[in-house]
Amino acid sequence: MKTKEKKKTSFVLSSVLAISLGVAQPIFAAETPPAVITSTVTENPNSSMKLSWETRDLDVTKAIAQVVKKSDAKKFASKHVKTFTSNDIVFKNNRAYSKVSATQLEEGTEYLYRVGDGTDKGWSDKGQFKTASTDEEKEFSFLYLSDTQYSSASTDGKKTEQMLKNATSQFKDSVDFTYLAGDFTDKANNPDQWDTFFNLSQNLFQDTFMVPVIGNHDSASGLYLDNYFPSPESAKENTANESSYVYSFDYGSAHFASLNTEHSSGEKLEEQVEWLKKDMEASDKKWKIVLFHKSIYPGASHITDSDIIRLRTALSPVLDELNVDAVLSGHDHVYSRGFVNGDGSKENAQPVKPTDLSTVYAPDAPLYYTIVSGGLKFYNPKNYSVTTGDPLIPNYDFLDVKSTNVEDAASADGNKITYSEVTVSDEKITFDTYYTTTKTNDNRHLETFSIVKEKEHETWSPDKVYVAGDRVSHDGRVFEAKWWTKGENPLKSGQWDVWKEIKDENPNEIPEWNASDIYVAGDKAYYNGELYEAKWWTRGDNPSKSGQWDVWKKVK
């Protein structure tokens, strides 16, 4: 006790001395430096980022942030440091919440940032983020979480902390951003829950920028979520009612749109639907991904809640019509996924290889994904009836992967707290999902699941040279060159039949390679799970060895 009293007295004396000597006072006192530091997505994450933090100093008058390229050897001593200021400060709960917009940044670039009052001792620890790339052929990835719903450090907090430790150690240095599908804490207006939530996060949210959506546990009076992960400015313009967290952005080959499912009826929902239609129709990105909290096709007990029925009725036909590829949600505290048509029926996706059901061609229906990333509670499936007009079918038969919460709760390991690394390339989206067990704290791999889009083929040109394997489109059909050719119309195929037409194939009908069968150019066969195509006549040549003359080629 004596030591603590001495330290306090020493602080008071030094403060008085500073004042008596006329030393310029910082914007806030150095003994209360910024904490809970975050970076959050904007409408243009390739060139800007929103930086937020809190301090306990209620006399703060200005928010200041500095940003510098991570590659700059001099870091914050560099002459290239960018300084941003604002007066966007909110006071509540004996805290000051500050926000600054960092703008005119370079795309696809790693930056360090710090926030504070501009004095040497008044800066926060450094954080980092990477701006988005506009290169559509460049792969990127993000961490997908939902319903961390932190409540108490003594119970669920320990379980959630272990999951966050696992996710952070695996992915913090490799993912480009984090997406949390709502319900960050259990009570949004409890500042202590927020403080502990950030303490548990292992700096994950300080070192990757956040893509937030609002959940029902985030929507307490005063919109506390906005203090930590602000709604992008465009949300005020996207709907007449200025609904928060209704926004969109591009990253690489994907277009993302966020909705606010707290508005589940009436004008506010209708406005979001109309905005989504215009937003998606204006995008030419290859992948379209929609983000919101309340899953409309989950695998547990929220399936027939009145607000879910209203959301499903309004959104499902539209998401299907807009050719949305994936809808990433939470809310129902369960892990489930499935392709669902606009009328609620199940869409069966075609596997790329019959022997591998984990990689499928993207069908003409959205993939609905639901995960739970908190240890507070888990929900079970229920028996339900389908009401008239609700785009739903019975028994959760719209899902490919259904809830296992009942079995998990009874097991020695306990329930699964799930999180997923989502990797997006020009041709494929892959969900690599892991889980932490609630009873044993083990970390395990759950599954890897991918959806693939076939490449679009260039239009045939009589002036271009094509070689064996090149594919072109002509007159609404697809052709493949057997060897070198120029100027030979695929429809006529030239004197030597140089072009062959590629027709839709059912992978399940392609046979396994047989050493005794004869194959000619264009014939396909599977061998050890890999698809091969013959270049010319062959018999007995093992596709994996491809024969003396390289007669087989692997089809990717």
From TrEMBL:
Organism encoding this protein: Cytobacillus purgationiresistens
Keyword Lipid metabolism attached? no
- On whether Hydrolase is a keyword of this UniProt record, the answer is yes
Pfam family membership, one: CBM_5_12
Q: What is the name of the protein in this document?
A: MPP superfamily phosphohydrolase
Signal peptide segment? 1-29
The record's listing under SUPFAM superfamilies reads: Carbohydrate binding domain, Metallo-dependent phosphatases, Purple acid phosphatase, N-terminal domain
Question: Which parts of the sequence belong to the Chitin-binding type-3 domain?
Answer: 457-502, 510-555
Q: Report the coiled-coil segments.
A: none
| PANTHER family named among the record's database cross-references | ACID PHOSPHATASE TYPE 7, PURPLE ACID PHOSPHATASE
* Key words of the record: Carbohydrate metabolism, Hydrolase, Polysaccharide degradation, Signal
What SMART domains has UniProt attached to this entry?
A: ChtBD3
